[in-house]
Amino acid sequence: MKIDWLKSTKEMRKILYRHLQPEMARKNLTLYKFLEKVTGRVPAGKGYDGNMRAGSYSRKSTSLMFDWLQIINPASAKAVEQEIARIDEVIDNAWNLLLQLERKPLSIIPLNWSMPLVQQAFLQLFLFMKFHVVNLFTFALRT
User: Fold this and answer.
1) Rounded distance, CA 13 to CA 62, Å?
2) For the chain, how far is it from start to end, CA to CA, in angstroms?
């Protein structure tokens, strides 16, 4: 499974960090040394450990961290992929179940990016969103 880390969620990054911690310990790397080694930048400030545990760190750096893990411990990298695949499967199944169980008169309508109204609405909302949109949809109420 190929993971697009630039679209990763906090939960995905938490999973990765849980697998990185034992490898950093085996290599006697502090978090700061690890970040410097993997990203090539010296971290400034404090609180990185808490941010990493919470999954609040750079998506661009995440890809570099996963690449490092694949080199150091391919089995652990595979375990990350499997955990993330299970999360994606649960989300997909929940969404499909919701679509199957839709009750009349309420229905769920997936929105198509080619619809000009969808493009305009999304562009207006984009500045205010603090979450990653995967699927756009709306609800219709038939009376």
Assistant:
1) 7
2) 44
Of the candidates 44, 60, 45, 49, the residue with the CA atom closest to the CA atom of residue 20 = 49
Q: Using one digit for the tens of pLDDT, what is the confidence trace for 103-123?
A: 556 666 666 656 666 555 655
Q: 9: closest CA among 123, 133, 113? A: 133
What's the pTM?
0.63
Q: Are 78 and 84 in contact (CB under 8 A)?
A: no
Instruction: Tell me the per-residue pLDDT of 132-143, one tens digit each, with 9 for 90 and over.
Output: 555 666 666 665
List of long-range contacts for 82-89, beta carbons under 8 Å, 24+ apart: 82/1, 83/15, 84/1, 84/3, 84/12, 84/15, 85/1, 87/11, 87/12, 87/15
